[in-house]
């Protein structure tokens, strides 16, 4: 099956990670997966949420949002509506959990790093692009802290990358763009460490329930995709 | 490894499903997984959300909430705080998606069924109990509609059940209670159809990332658990 | 005049109070007035609101809410609407004031007891059922505290019970069910102590204004009803 | 017992009702009960709330609010806090119900009258002053409508007035000012028609529960007070 | 060109400033510019916002609001809508900035003065009337503080007054009433000190952009108007 | 006086306007004034707000927001706080009014253009950069509409550009960067048409009130700055 943009089923879109995109943030990255563009900013704060004070442990949290015209039709601002939607909440939580998987809270000390992931342009896979880019911003923010001797140890114990996979017309595809995502029978987001283990597996049957062998083929695809993204992250950071 | 309540690793807690728990709802169920008690009410509405009008298709949606003292310490009401938290949003969306997997929208006609899942008492696995119970309430509501000839066809094309699995102290366990859930290194919620296919797979490494074989063992456990729950649903409905 | 359920005008519906309905709360009761079912949970907190700190005095507060499908037609969740309605506010405040009437703040010490009254099923008289049940939950919570020597004295100086009365078709009736409530020309909620004095009297002419003798007959009915409920509370607690 | 301002126990404060205080409203009144000053504005709208459309019946509703510095210490604006408090809700509902008692919905036709009662200065009894003043604004608005032949009949079938009574130091007092209200053991708000019947009776034991004879003496006082206010309303409107 | 109310283009409406309109506030003024009536209350608080604590400096802030029926058609309450509109925000900020221009924060000490400006009746120029009146309430509140020796020095270093000007039918007009404001091509609000300098200049082309000479003529008009208002403020305060 | 970045007092920062920065929007621009970077997206909607329907006239509106880490320290998201701040409201309204000054509503027909101005990086003058950039996005969106024959005429009757000016250390400066803005005694934002007339003049004395000659010198500076920006807009659009 030929994909609209000519990719093979197991091929990522062109992925670029541009560091230091912002002047003020301790770490910042513009990550692009094809037409998807997410601005990831890491902010270092020398304190932790109330429930964690005095523990000696740090914290990582994330907020995800889309600009109103990042998509094909304009969507209302959540600030104007006065509340955050379920999808936004869900993705913010996913990004936070994913990045916490590569951090040693004790080595971080009582500091917080906030990852703001703002989608400037959306073409499918915004949450996985956000995780992949935010990891690089996080690494830069941690380097910034270590230069200033703010951390008792090295908090960065692993890396994380993420990719979407799905079944479109019975074919398992890697890194779905928007039109593929809409057409997918099954959609899965996979977050993996640099050492190839799973951090998150979220698979959803959009239409037709899927069997174990389909699940297996999707996990295989995702594993290869994440390995490629991990290699890119290393290149960009070195 | 012995579990606190003496269960074997692959054993469900005592599960009961009490139909017609409420006088007014078109379908209602009190579902209990051990100490977890969720009240599921299905409401039939003879219209659909604005974006679906004129399509001839129906809709299924769900709302999940916890009573403030369902848990060990009291939590503030979301109505008092004036907003719904991320976790609540996430679970409501999961329940809705799961139940939509067993319904034929066309056979439902332009009607909506709302599933309210209110946790009266929480001891782990509230979202999977909610899905398992809500399915029965949904089936009752559909039967109620069919008796009144409200549907053009039979909307119930499958059944769904759900269970949590996790790794505690390196052992894969089925149907975690609260203390196990807190101790779990990896936590997974699995929603399956009555015919044994996946609707949702949501696995999260709470501490240590997990490898493919761990994932496989958890899916095996979940498959067996869901089959048992499916059998119970059938018994209860017959 | 025969009532729909065959009761005489001065007869309560079957009332049951089930203690310890919840595993976690310090006091918990499922109270039923016929088809009205309210879950009352008492939570002990070892602090008081900011404005009361350092006074040596305790505090009692209450929150009332209805599950969306407790009623004949589903109502939207107040958490989803993002604000609490006037009726909910009004009833929460009534329950709080009523229960404060039976407590000695000094003997309670700087502790707070929160009463959560959640209506699982509504058939008229939910606020009076809530007060009657919450009193028992409160008594259990205070006993729990006294066993742990948390209070400087015995905070429970009285009991409270509540009942609705109203004029339907010119006849004064005790303990209105939903259909009677809707048909009532005048509706009154009366909260009384175990020693027969008034804590709250709230009478409203729904259609036709009422005269003094009507008011007197309603107060008589309510007095007898509250005495009966007081007797039941004592039986249940002993 | 001498009252601070030298009144006898059964004496109202000086009460003034100034009509046409605002240029734009269809009816408007500045009502003063001693130091309590409430601005009541009646707005005529040629439609009814959605749930009443097509019924041929009108509607009366009310909103109550206090200016931030109407009281001794400044209170935050509810608009700034982003939500309406329980007390505000409760009083708005009370005013609306009270005024609905003197209106024939059918004669009003499908029109709504909104009564805005804004407390400019508070010294006790703001809700009863608001009801007493709002009645006059309502009468003016109805006269305005009738001049324009907007109503199928005469909607004003009665009048309403309201007053507070309470027990201070064992003495029943009429029309409590703020310092008396704070000191009251029992506090009651009574709304009556011009023909001397009850519309609302709301009695609350603030400290000590009260017996039937106390209740009777308070109702006697309130009856006389409301009769006096009714006479004033008539004088002012003629 | 004759104005509707017979004024000449450079003439203010009748302006009155009534001090001590409220019993409780430390300073209070009812200011009237023709049919525009604004109640200004100054509240003294012996603390400052969190971000200013420990600085030794005071703070001045303001809140503006309109009663729902101050205008020709009723507008919804911002408290009911649950949020403050852009116009309200903008004017509150303008009033606060304007009054801060005449205060020495150091001489004020760590105290805050809140100016509440509530529009009772609106007929154009509510924000400029509010500033002009609030200055007098502020002066009274500062005098109140100085009598109690709350301030380290004399915080009142200048006075402020404000007026609107605009172009209607090519003619520059002073102090627009509502109908003139609606018809204006250009609308400008000018805040000036008692010594004739500018604090705020806010000019907006409502329809046709304006040139420099138009701007100059408007500033001339405003200068004369503010001088007149300053003289009135002095008279009223002496 | 030398400015930090070596500019002369009447010199703009390097200004760039990049068109078509987004794939989906009908017009989109990344505008940069030195370190200030604003993404402006124009969305065409084939309808108008409710209050304008049936008038045959179009509408232009704008929303302004800052990304949380566009500034030196992170600010909370307004969506998370659940409300829009006063500054955001004020600037959104300013941008909308400014752009409406160059549009003929009748020639636009019953269509709306929404301008979203999101600050990616802030270094002073974000609102004036937003207006200057949004004009170009608007022109592109109108060209897009005209190609599709959506407009009855040519709605673009003029152009608008904006710049900030201020007094720092007694010197009037053009186009303040953040550190200059913070140090300014007087701060003014000026919006002008391409033909050199004023659309908005907003001058604020941050510390010391300013006299007429200061105001004149600031308007001179702004006039020259806007002319330069107008020339750039023309170059970019041709």
From TrEMBL, chains A, B, C, D, E, F:
<keyword id="KW-0694">RNA-binding</keyword>
<comment type="subunit">
    <text>Homohexameric ring arranged as a trimer of dimers.</text>
</comment>
<dbReference type="InterPro" id="IPR001247">
    <property type="entry name" value="ExoRNase_PH_dom1"/>
</dbReference>
<keyword id="KW-0808">Transferase</keyword>
<dbReference type="InterPro" id="IPR050080">
    <property type="entry name" value="RNase_PH"/>
</dbReference>
<comment type="function">
    <text>Phosphorolytic 3'-5' exoribonuclease that plays an important role in tRNA 3'-end maturation. Removes nucleotide residues following the 3'-CCA terminus of tRNAs; can also add nucleotides to the ends of RNA molecules by using nucleoside diphosphates as substrates, but this may not be physiologically important. Probably plays a role in initiation of 16S rRNA degradation (leading to ribosome degradation) during starvation.</text>
</comment>
<keyword id="KW-0820">tRNA-binding</keyword>
<dbReference type="Pfam" id="PF03725">
    <property type="entry name" value="RNase_PH_C"/>
</dbReference>
<feature type="domain" description="Exoribonuclease phosphorolytic">
    <location>
        <begin position="11"/>
        <end position="141"/>
    </location>
</feature>
<dbReference type="GO" id="GO:0009022">
    <property type="term" value="F:tRNA nucleotidyltransferase activity"/>
</dbReference>
<dbReference type="InterPro" id="IPR020568">
    <property type="entry name" value="Ribosomal_Su5_D2-typ_SF"/>
</dbReference>
<comment type="similarity">
    <text>Belongs to the RNase PH family.</text>
</comment>
<dbReference type="InterPro" id="IPR002381">
    <property type="entry name" value="RNase_PH_bac-type"/>
</dbReference>
<protein>
    <recommendedName>
        <fullName>Ribonuclease PH</fullName>
        <ecNumber>2.7.7.56</ecNumber>
    </recommendedName>
</protein>
<dbReference type="InterPro" id="IPR027408">
    <property type="entry name" value="PNPase/RNase_PH_dom_sf"/>
</dbReference>
<feature type="binding site">
    <location>
        <position position="87"/>
    </location>
    <ligand>
        <name>phosphate</name>
    </ligand>
</feature>
<dbReference type="Pfam" id="PF01138">
    <property type="entry name" value="RNase_PH"/>
</dbReference>
<feature type="domain" description="Exoribonuclease phosphorolytic">
    <location>
        <begin position="159"/>
        <end position="223"/>
    </location>
</feature>
<dbReference type="InterPro" id="IPR036345">
    <property type="entry name" value="ExoRNase_PH_dom2_sf"/>
</dbReference>
<dbReference type="InterPro" id="IPR015847">
    <property type="entry name" value="ExoRNase_PH_dom2"/>
</dbReference>
<feature type="binding site">
    <location>
        <begin position="125"/>
        <end position="127"/>
    </location>
    <ligand>
        <name>phosphate</name>
    </ligand>
</feature>
<keyword id="KW-0548">Nucleotidyltransferase</keyword>
<keyword id="KW-0819">tRNA processing</keyword>
<dbReference type="InterPro" id="IPR018336">
    <property type="entry name" value="RNase_PH_CS"/>
</dbReference>
<keyword id="KW-0698">rRNA processing</keyword>
């Amino acid at each position: 099956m030929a994909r609209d943009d000519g990719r093979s089923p197991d091929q990522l879109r062109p992925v670029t990670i541009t560091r230091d995109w912002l002047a003020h943030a301790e770490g910042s990255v513009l990550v692009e997966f094809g037409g998807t563009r997410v601005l990831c900013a890491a902010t270092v704060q020398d304190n932790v949420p109330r429930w964690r004070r005095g523990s000696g442990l740090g914290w990582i949290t994330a907020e995800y949002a889309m600009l109103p015209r990042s998509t094909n039709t304009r969507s209302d601002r959540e600030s104007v509506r006065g509340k955050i939607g379920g999808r936004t909440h869900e993705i913010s939580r996913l990004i936070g959990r994913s990045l916490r998987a590569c951090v040693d809270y004790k080595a971080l000390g009582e500091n917080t790093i906030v990852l703001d992931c703002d989608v400037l342009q959306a073409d499918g896979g915004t949450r996985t692009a956000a995780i992949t880019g935010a990891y690089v911003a996080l690494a830069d923010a941690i380097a910034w802290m270590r230069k200033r001797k703010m951390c008792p140890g090295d908090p960065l114990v692993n890396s994380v990358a993420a990719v979407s996979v799905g079944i479109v017309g019975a074919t398992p595809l890697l890194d779905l763009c928007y039109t593929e995502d809409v057409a997918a029978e099954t959609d899965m987001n996979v977050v993996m460490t640099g050492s190839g283990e799973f951090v998150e597996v979220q698979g959803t049957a959009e239409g037709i329930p899927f069997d174990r062998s389909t699940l297996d083929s999707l996990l295989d695809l995702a594993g290869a995709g994440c390995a490629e993204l991990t290699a890119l992250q290393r290149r960009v950071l070195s």
